[in-house]
Amino acid sequence: MQRTQSQDLFEKARQYIPGGVNSPVRAFRAVGGSPVFIKSAKGPYIYDEDGNQYLEFINSWGPMILGHAHELIEKAVSDAIQNSFSFGAPTRKEVEMAELIVGMVPSVEKVRMVNSGTEATMSAIRVARGYTGRDKIIKFEGCYHGHGDSFLISAGSGAVTMGVPDSPGVTKGVANDTLTAPFNDLPALQQLIDANRGQIAALILEPVVGNMGCVLPNAGYLEAIRSMCTKEGIVLIFDEVMTGFRLAKGGAQERFGIVPDMTTMGKIIGGGMPVGAYGGKREIMDCVSPAGPVYQAGTLSGNPIAMSAGLAMLRYLEAHSEVYTRLDEVGNTITAGFKASLQKLGLNFTINHIGSMFTLFMTDQPVTDFTSAKASDLPMFGRYFQAMLKRGIYLAPSQFESLFFSYALEDAHIQQLIEANEEALREVI
């Protein structure tokens, strides 16, 4: 494939944009080469500035459940634009969206719209602190909750060690209030809680992790966390920016049968447009201004264009349960095809998969946390990514990102992916 337009655009972008991109993973540093600049997308395909077509499995990092440029969502946006782009004032669609979310997500009794997943998680933490009167939070290694200061913390040398800033610009004071535990390790989490009893406002996690690759909770893990938080008066927050409305109509909490105290949501409720939300128990959400003392605001929150797109998406998902049946079938078929190829090639790589989330890890060890994810052969993944790209398959440009399947995938697309995967693996080994 010729990608001269993308290469030229990247060189120009580096003159005006830090690193040439507006989000780090887009720079392709983890896989080599220069990024592909996208011009358009439809259904399961994206098209770059050089006219190349790719079958893609990022789906804007999750929200394109129905595929790109779905006609219902396109129409909703087109109709909404006729009434202007933004008001900075209440609209009917905000109320309809809130009612729909409350009806679909088990934990949400009230909800507040924001503009991104990062805003949602930052706001949820602030509300949890205001509600409990406590300062500290617990997060997990490898779980990503946006770029808020509290979330850019890595673990110290022991389970009860305070975190240290993982990025310049994050203060030691913020780090001192952020406790980090390894995912899927209940004894370490209990030790952390015991060492900070009565000081922890919230525990936040991705119920299925998507930002160290797809990593599932061990059996009983989420149930145990729910019990710990209830016992200690800790606000349990599920970050469902990726899993919400994707793993089930009510997200991972519906699929696993675990009800958190608060939930953060993101791109999916905007049909792919910039949007986010956080919600939860009525008594917690009533702490938010103007109902309560915890301040949070946003001029573009509840933007009518984003609400229109999100309403079209969620109403379709609510009315068509066959979407989730099909997505599970797609995930199972791809997993089976990949495993067959691995066996044929004598490879014992790890595949993690649930519903329409999927990661092939370049390691023969089980991947249950960030430490085991980092055991993957990253140079090999980079070669594999490039081998897939030249076969017209666009994957996440990082070993540590989940893939997402869409409802637009047909059986022929699935077979194309499975065949390309086997060819690419054969090439890189």
Mean pLDDT: 93
Unreliable stretches: 155-163
For the biggest sheet, the summary is: 7 strands, mixed
The helix tally amounts to: 14
Spell the H/E element sequence: HEEEHHEHEEEHEHEHEHEEHHHEEHHEEH
Give the amount of beta strand, in percent.
15-25%
By helix and strand content, what is the structural category?
Answer: alpha/beta
- Beginning-to-end CA distance, first to last residue: 22 Å
- Fraction of residues in helix: 25-40%
Strand order of the largest sheet: 4-12-11-10-9-5-8
Radius of gyration: 21 Å
- How many strands in all? 16
Shape: globular
Structural notes for this entry:
By secondary structure, the chain is of the alpha/beta class. It is built from 14 helices and 16 strands. The strands form four sheets. A seven-stranded mixed sheet has the order 4-12-11-10-9-5-8, with helices on both faces. A four-stranded mixed sheet has the order 1-2-3-15. A three-stranded antiparallel sheet has the order 13-14-16, covered by helices on one side. β9 (200-205), α7 and β10 (235-239) form a beta-alpha-beta unit. α2 (71-81) runs antiparallel to α10, α3 (92-104) packs parallel to α10 and α13 (378-389) crosses α14. The longest helix has 24 residues, at 322-345. The radius of gyration is 21 Å and the shape is globular. The two termini are 22 Å apart. The relative contact order is 0.16. Residues 155-163 have low confidence and may be disordered.
